[in-house]
Amino acid sequence: MPKAIVIGSGIAGLASALRIKKLGYEVDVYEKNPxxxxxxxxxxxxxxxFDLGPSLFTMPHYVDELFELxxxxxxxxxxxxxxxxxxxxxxxxxxRFSAKADKDSFVRDAAAAFGEDxxxxxxxxxxxxxxxxxxxxxxxEKSLHxxxxxxxxxxxxxxxxxxxLDLNTSLHKVNASRFRNPKLVQLFNRxxxxxxxxxxxxxxxxxxxxxxxxxxxxxxxxxxxHRISQSLYELxxxxxxxxxxxxxxxxxxxxxxxxxxIVTNEGSHSADIxxxxxxxxxxxxxxxxxxPHPKKTLAQERSSSALIFYWGIKGEFxxxxxxxxxxxxDYPGEFKAIFDDKSLAEDPTVYVNITSKDVPDDAPEGSENxxxxxxxxxNYGQDWQALKRDARRHILQKLEKCLGKDIxxxxxxxxxxxxxxxEDNTSSYRGALYGAASNSKxxxxxxHPNFSSRIENLxxxxxxxxxxxxxxxxxxxxxxxxxxxxxxxxxxxxx
Length: 495
Ligand code: FAD
Prior knowledge:
It is a single chain. The chain is an alpha/beta fold and about 500 residues long. The protein has 19 helices and 20 strands. It has a seven-stranded mixed β-sheet with strand order 8-7-16-17-18-15-19. The chain has a five-stranded parallel β-sheet with strand order 10-2-1-14-20, covered by helices on one side. A hairpin with a 5-residue loop joins strand 7 (about 85-90) and strand 8. Helix 1 runs parallel beside helix 11, helix 5 packs across helix 7 (about 155-160) and helix 8 (about 170-180) runs antiparallel to helix 9 (about 180-190). It is globular, with a radius of gyration of 22 Å. The two termini are about 20 Å apart. The model is unreliable at about 490-495 (pLDDT under 50). Bound molecules: flavin-adenine dinucleotide (FAD). Belongs to the carotenoid/retinoid oxidoreductase family. Keywords: Carotenoid biosynthesis, Oxidoreductase. Pfam families: Amino_oxidase.
């Protein structure tokens, strides 16, 4: 039986292991942490449970298909429910907007709240759908780095209709040219942060992201986000994938232009194929130091990172739901601080995620588990102690102003994660949440391919390579890898 080694058990590493096992490989996963899941991890503190990383779950069918691939009922491992409210939005002037997942309700409510025209909103959302339909099959589901992708009829169709993709303008310009109300522009600009980018730099094609939320919906897993990685880990154990925790990979072994194994802190292990789920930057710098590096790819601007306060809060807030956003009064200034000044704005946009709204066991009765996050620059050696101290004060000011309630005195427990912590936990270069930023129209093409063009049988999955960061794209990277690896048993069957 051919042997595969997967380096790292992030969501893409888990999904790759599951897919490669199905192809008939013996699979060993080497993970530096004592747990599986990478960024999809959780902690418990003083009776509160907090998801440490992702909080927004879209396109759950990419998780379901991994269970189905192995003939299992997804429900037996992993259940989730669809949210009716996408997000509650708050501004300092007292305005509030509750965005419904149902498209018609959203259009009706947004037209009324922001004084916009229903037809204009509908045609904007329809344009977003067209962008997604035209590009998903090419840019997300296949390797961008194989000639066959470019020769397909879908690609030729997309090239013929490049104009509607808004590649030459920014997301902000697309939104500002469409809507008069700056609050609605800000609401749609926010989607740039879903891949850690700035709405003032990321291309207009990113307006396809709200389509994903409205069309595919947003979901909350039973037991919280951590169930995504845990249920996949359970399935992987069930089907015989072997996990080796606290085994940091130090080197990828190559011989005559082929990957032949790895070296961990305990010795070397051979394999027929190696798949790295480690961030592509340290994969080259640490595991393949002698190999020529793809300089342009590794020099790409990194996506934003985050500063997160996990607060156990005494009391319940009726006006809040699972996802809540408290907008900055100076949105351009916030992104300038993050991407140009590598600092934090004095008036940041604050995201509050409360899973105990849907998963009551996540907090003691009469309390809520708040995941309070602001977007942050990567770690460039800033004074994070000072930045965290100031950010905590600014966040509390904003929340107290928008909610008209004292928050600080209700905090009964606290845990903090900053870009240094994110980098330490997962080796994500500079603590980036999504690998490289998508702050230019070329970013997608500069992302590293899912295979090595120099070393045979070496593959890459995860948020720092094609097609990008976030749970759905990481799961797609695993699917692309499983299409690329040698398929010995399949070949035999067809011989
Ligand atoms: P990672 O999760 O980065 O895992 C890589 C694994 O490799 C880790 O387990 C690490 O320990 C291991 N590893 C690294 N180096 C080695 C080595 N040398 N040897 C062995 N093991 C190694 N996405 C969403 O879809 N929705 C969200 O709401 C969302 N919010 C986020 C909020 C935060 C705070 C963070 C941090 C991320 C968020 N993301 C979100 C992004 C999402 O978490 C990531 O894109 C995704 O989880 C990355 O998965 P991955 O497979 O690339 O690997």
